[in-house]
Amino acid sequence: MKDSKDPAARLYADWTNKTCEENGFQFSLREVDREDLEGRILAANKDDTVDGIIVYYPIFNSRQDQYLQQLIDVGKDVEGLSHRYVFNMYQNIRFLDEQKLQKSILPCTPLAIVKILEYLKVYNTILPYGNRLFGHSITVVNRSEVVGRPLAALLANDGASVYSVDVTGVQLYTRGEGIRKSRHDVVEKDGWKLEDCVPLSNVVISGVPGDDFKFPTRLLKDGAICINFSTEKVGSRNFVKDNLPS
Asked: Which of 6, 19, 114, 131 is a good FRET partner for 242, with 20 to 30 A between their CA atoms?
């Protein structure tokens, strides 16, 4: 579902449709006035012909969007935005059932970055599932509730030491010494800046949109893996060719 007055969401919906078709899912886009969206979500929850619901945010670009997220039946939430999925993600609860047959759904962009790191073999498959980032230090520049903070939690829950950076400072996400804890803790790193955590990191992930921020690549350690998830135009990506040291 999307707001009928939001043309930007149309492109996203088209890509969703393409991906669904490639994987054998039937996709139906329903464009509605945002004032009617609440009722349409509730109706879709009861519609047995609907197996999953995606809403293209922002709708109101306010806390009302959070309310809409919680309206979706957890059994039809394919984006992992309902409270149960968010709770499970931060608590490092990976399944919905005791038999561990139904995985808890994760938000798409953080999960995509995890898949990239798996593809790059940052995850050590020799280690037990859930601990495969042990020994890695990762810096994430962005602490939004949509991507940055969930991503830091996911990576820390998989065993990494994660430095979460935003304009307010640096936080360290870990499962404690020797990853003894079942879920991550968060510690404020008072006085720390990028200059303190980036040289320690073998993976750096940045997602700061706009032209004002360019990542100080001089801080990167040799061989560090760099991932950018900023959604601005190509010329404003955080890691750019003309920003690299000569």
From this structure: 114
- What's the token pair of residue 86? 């968010």
Q: Where are the alpha helices (DSSP H) in the chain?
A: 8-22, 37-46, 63-71, 83-91, 108-119, 148-157, 194-197
Rounded to whole angstroms, the Cα distance separating 43 from 57 reads 19
The pLDDT tens digits of the residues spanning 82-114 come to 999 999 999 999 999 999 999 999 999 999 999
Q: What's the whole-model pTM score?
A: 0.87
Residues with a known catalytic role: 108
DSSP single-letter state for residue 240 = -
Compute the distance between CA of residue 101 and CA of residue 152 in angstroms, rounded to an integer: 25
Question: Which one-letter DSSP state was computed for residue 215?
Answer: -
- Angle, helices 37-46/63-71, rounded to nearest 10 degrees: 20
